[in-house]
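Sanity check

After download, print the first record. It should look like this:
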Amino acid sequence: MFVLPSIFFILVLFPVYGSAESNNTVEKNNSLENYTYLLKSPKQAKEVLEIMKNQYPSLNVTAIEDIGLIYVENSKNIDVNKIENKIIEYIDVQGELPDLISPYEDAVTPNRILNEVKQLTLDEFKESNQFDTNIEFPSLNSETFTPFNWYLKDVTSDYKNLSIDTGEHSTIALIDSGVDIEHPLIKENIDLTLAKNYVTNDMDITDELGHGTTIAGIMSSIAPDTTIVPYKVIGNEVGKSVWVIEAIIDAANNDNDVINLSVGTYFIKSEKEDKLLIKAYKKAVKYAESKGAWNSSRIHTN
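Expected structure tokens:
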């Protein structure tokens, strides 16, 4: 295991082994879900985009100009070598960005969770008087939840920090699976003004896995007066590294004080592509730090 320089979120990278590269270039290109270029300078992004569009006008490209990352969704009709020959002088590193690991990949599947929820809806709860939406819940850092908040005593120096700063006037960007905006214990902390869904490109940041909601609960227990802004990068099955990188840049540009990211991703097929993944994240982290995002954790890889 090695540790990269400290910044503001935890990113766990797990190695996974791919098959040997094919000598057939076209076959290799067609097996890729994307091909991604990290440029030597962010200032080159617009020029590279123009070159690509001239070569392939219908190209599906995502450009994160703040760090000079160009993400091209694969098409069997595109010869990646022709593109690379045109932009080779601009490229720092290149390869395929991997998907994210679902936080509950080896646990209960989202479909099973949803099927169980359908058996007992909120309306049925209300009709049977088992659920009172007007009930006043205790705070997450109260004695009621002490048996469950096992971490709270340690991270708040035996609760002393809670008397110093409760997170008032601070914002945390939650880059995760979304959040349950109606959850009674955290709904007052959620701000949807700048929230974004990268999975379906709409405004719905509903948590389909539960992981983001859990992390929001931890945040609210440590800093009960903080504001949480959700950036959804994982759906009910998969997320993409490029969405996380986009979310980091957006969260920084939106002036969030803290950026929290606790998801995993895979090392992929080759050293070249692993280098792309790490360098892209480091550039995003460095950019966010330059915009004033607070240093609260560190990146590490396994």
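If your output differs, re-run the checksum step. Summary of this record's structure: The CA atoms of residues 74 and 138 lie 50 Å apart.
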